[in-house]
Specification:
Blueprint (H helix, E strand, L loop, with lengths): L5 E5 L5 H10 L3 E6 L5 H6 L1 H18 L16 H25 L3 E11 L2 E6 L4 E5 L2 E4 L3 E2 L13 E2 L1 H4 L8 E5 L3 H13 L2 E6 L10 H13 L3 E4 L3 E7 L2 E6 L4 E4 L1 E4 L4 E2 L6 H4 L22 E3 L10 H15 L13 E3 L5 E5 L2 H6 L4 E7 L4 H6 L5 E7 L5 E7 L3 H13 L4 H6 L9 H9 L13
Parallel strand pairs: 1-2, 1-6, 2-3, 6-17, 8-15, 9-10, 9-15, 10-11
Antiparallel strand pairs: 3-4, 4-5, 7-16, 12-13, 13-14, 18-19, 19-22, 20-21, 21-22
Length: 467
C-alpha cells in the first residue's frame, strides 16, 4: 500500500495503540478511536494499577522483615490505602500521557469516541458529546478488548460486590474479603488484600487455585497463600448469597456460610465484539463471540483485522501488542504472521510466577516422555544474600531430544527471569545449551542454569539424587 494508506483502529489498549504506532512507522496515515482511555483496561484498570498496589505490599513486607538485615525500623508497618491509590492514579496518569505523546509524535489522530463499521471501508464515530461522523479507511483494525462479565447471580453493588475495577479504587481496607474465583486475578488480589491485613477467603470451583499452571507452582503458591492465612475453599461454589449489615453472607455448596465486608467477583472476561457493526459487513464470529482471524490477524473480510482479547486467542496484553504489530504490517502490505508457540507470561502473586510452554501434565498428556529438572531458590547465593530464598525453578524437557518443552518459575523476579527460557525455546535450544551458557554470579538467573543441569542430574548446588 502507498504512504497515503489510511488505517482506522478501533480501540487504544495495548493492542490498538501499538498497532497505530507500527502502522505510522510503516508510513500509514492513522486514526485511533477510543471511547474510554488510552491504554485500555490493562493500563487503567488492570495490569498496571494492580501491580502498583502489589508493589507497595512487597515493599511493606520487606520492611517488616528488615531486622535480620540490620535495619531497625521503629514502630509497626501500616498501609494508607488512600495514599496508595492516589499514587497508583499518578502512575497510570503518567503512562496514559506518555501514550498520548507517542501518538502525537507519530502524527496519529486520536479521536475520543466509539467506532462502528458502516461497511468494509467506512467507520461511524459516535463522539463523546453524542454527535456522529464517518471516516473512510483503507483498512480497519478492531482492538476492542474485553470487559468484566455481567453475571446475573452476582450483580455489582459496590462496595458489597465488586469487580477488580472497583476493588482497585477502594480507599479503606476491608476487614474481610471473599474472592469468587481462584484464577490469576483472584490469586493476585488474595495476595494484595491479605498483605493489607484483610481476612481473605477464596472460593474456587476447580480442585486447585491457578488450575492451568504447573503442579509444582500450584502446590508452592497454595502453601504461600495458607501462610498468609487465606482460606481456600476448593471444589466448591457459592449457591446463594445475600446482603447483610453492609456486607455479604454467602452459602457454599458444602453448606458452610461465609461473611465478608466485600465480595470480589473474579471469574473471567466478556469479549467486546458487540456494537461493532460486524453483521453489516459479514465478519465471522466464533461460538464465544470471538472475532475469527487468520495468522495474519485478518478476518474473513479483506482489509478488516482484529487483535487482542476480542479474538479469543489470548488474554495477555503483550500478545495483543504482538498481534497489533502483525496486523499493522499486513494492513500495509508487508506480510507477517504470528506464532503462538512460545508466549511467556507472568503472574504477580507474592511470590511471582513466570511460565512459558507446557506444564509437566500437559506434556505427558500429549504422549511425550519427559525429563524434569528443578532447583530451589534457597540454593542461590543471591537469593540468600537479599533475603529471597523462597521458590523454585522447573525445566521440562523431551527425554529423547532434550529440547525444552516448558519452564516454570515461582519466586522473586520470576516474571522477568522467564524470558531467558522463552528465548531458549524460541531458538529451539536444548537443556544442554541452556546449562552450558555461563551465567553471572551471584544472580537469580543461575537458578535456571542449575535447573537445566538437573534435568541430567548434574546440578552443582543440589543435593545428590539417590538412585
Amino acid at each position: 500500500m502507498s504512504d497515503s494508506t489510511h488505517i482506522v483502529i478501533i480501540g487504544a489498549g495495548p493492542g490498538g495503540y501499538v498497532a497505530a504506532i507500527r502502522a505510522a512507522q510503516l508510513g500509514a496515515r492513522v486514526t485511533v478511536l477510543e471511547e474510554q482511555a488510552l491504554g485500555g483496561v490493562c493500563l487503567n484498570w488492570g495490569c498496571i494499577p494492580s501491580k502498583t498496589l502489589l508493589g507497595f505490599i512487597d515493599l511493606g513486607e520487606r520492611v517488616r522483615h528488615a531486622q535480620p538485615f540490620g535495619l531497625n525500623i521503629d514502630g509497626p508497618v501500616s498501609y494508607d490505602l488512600a495514599r496508595m491509590v492516589a499514587r497508583k492514579e499518578d502512575v497510570v496518569r503518567g503512562l496514559v500521557n506518555g501514550i498520548g505523546t507517542l501518538l502525537k509524535q507519530w502524527n496519529i489522530a486520536h479521536v475520543p469516541g466509539r467506532g462502528e463499521l458502516v461497511n468494509d471501508r467506512q467507520v461511524r464515530v459516535t463522539h463523546l458529546d453524542g454527535s456522529t461522523s464517518t471516516i473512510d479507511a483503507d483498512a480497519v483494525i478492531l482492538a476492542t478488548g474485553s470487559s468484566w462479565p455481567q453475571l446475573p447471580q452476582f450483580p455489582i453493588e459496590g462496595p458489597r460486590v465488586l469487580t477488580s475495577k472497583e476493588a482497585l479504587d477502594l480507599t479503606e481496607i476491608p476487614r474481610r474479603v471473599l474472592i469468587v474465583g481462584g484464577g490469576v486475578e483472584g490469586c493476585e488480589f488474595a495476595c494484595l488484600f491479605s498483605g493489607l491485613g484483610s481476612e481473605v477467603s477464596v472460593v474456587e470451583m476447580m480442585p486447585s487455585v491457578l488450575p492451568l499452571e504447573d503442579e509444582d507452582v500450584i502446590s508452592t503458591l497454595t502453601r504461600e497463600l495458607k501462610k498468609r492465612k487465606a482460606q481456600l475453599f476448593l471444589n466448591t461454589q457459592i449457591t446463594q448469597w445475600s446482603a447483610v449489615d453492609q456486607g455479604v453472607q454467602a452459602t457454599l455448596g458444602s453448606g458452610e456460610e461465609l461473611v465478608a465486608d466485600t465480595m470480589l467477583i473474579s471469574v473471567g472476561r466478556r469479549l467486546n465484539s458487540g456494537r461493532l457493526g460486524l453483521d453489516k459487513v459479514g465478519v465471522n464470529l466464533g461460538a464465544k463471540g470471538e472475532i475469527l482471524v487468520n495468522e495474519q490477524m485478518e478476518t474473513n473480510v479483506p482489509g478488516i483485522f482484529a487483535i487482542g482479547d476480542v479474538t479469543g486467542k489470548s488474554m495477555l496484553a503483550h500478545v495483543a501488542s504482538a498481534q497489533g504489530k502483525v496486523a499493522a504490517s499486513n494492513a500495509m502490505g508487508q506480510p507477517q504472521s504470528i506464532n503462538y508457540d512460545v508466549i511467556p507470561a507472568g503472574i504477580f502473586t507474592l511470590p511471582e510466577i513466570g511460565r512459558v510452554g507446557l506444564t509437566e501434565a500437559q506434556a505427558r498428556e500429549r504422549g511425550l516422555t519427559v525429563a524434569v529438572g528443578r532447583f530451589r531458590y534457597a540454593g542461590l547465593g543471591k537469593a540468600q544474600a537479599v533475603g529471597e530464598p523462597f521458590g523454585q525453578f522447573k525445566v521440562i524437557a523431551d527425554e529423547h531430544t532434550k529440547k525444552i518443552l516448558g519452564v516454570h518459575i515461582i519466586g522473586a523476579h520470576a516474571a522477568d527471569l522467564i524470558h531467558e527460557a522463552a528465548l531458549a525455546m524460541h531458538g529451539g535450544l536444548t537443556v544442554a545449551d541452556l546449562a552450558d551458557m555461563i551465567h553471572a554470579h551471584p544472580t537469580f538467573s543461575e537458578g535456571l542454569m542449575e535447573a537445566a543441569e538437573d534435568v541430567e542430574g548434574m546440578a552443582i548446588h543440589q543435593a545428590r539424587k539417590r538412585k
